[in-house]
Amino acid sequence: MDEKLGTPAEVVEVRTRTGATGDIFQVKCKILEGPDKGGVRTRNVKGPIQVGDVLVLMETEREAKEIKVPR
């Protein structure tokens, strides 16, 4: 896919909610095309999301820091 349009990635796991109001989800997504095809990245997503959804990532190199949830 043209880099200007982004790279598709499928959500394989919804990890946790974060943000002041809990509207940000941390997800693991698998890159579907491009040089990083098959790689799994952790990203933050705003809005409703579920396993199987396809995101369009503008950058595939960037990865979100893991959220540490207190027990």
Radius of gyration: 12 Å
Count of separate DSSP helical elements: 0
Residue-averaged pLDDT: 88
Give the structural class. Answer: mainly beta
Main-sheet strand order equals 3-2-1-4
Largest sheet: 4 strands, antiparallel
What is the helix/strand order? EEEE
Broad shape: elongated
Strand content: 35-45%
Task: Give the % helix.
Answer: under 10%
Distance, first to last CA: 41 Å
The count of β-strands is: 4
Outline the low-pLDDT stretches: none
Describe the 3D structure.
The chain is mainly beta and about 70 residues long. It contains no helices and four strands. It has strands at about 5-20, 25-30, 40-45, 55. It has a four-stranded antiparallel beta sheet with strand order 3-2-1-4, with no helix packed on it. Strand 1 (about 5-20) and strand 2 (about 25-30) form a beta hairpin. The radius of gyration is 12 Å and the shape is elongated. The mean pLDDT is about 90.
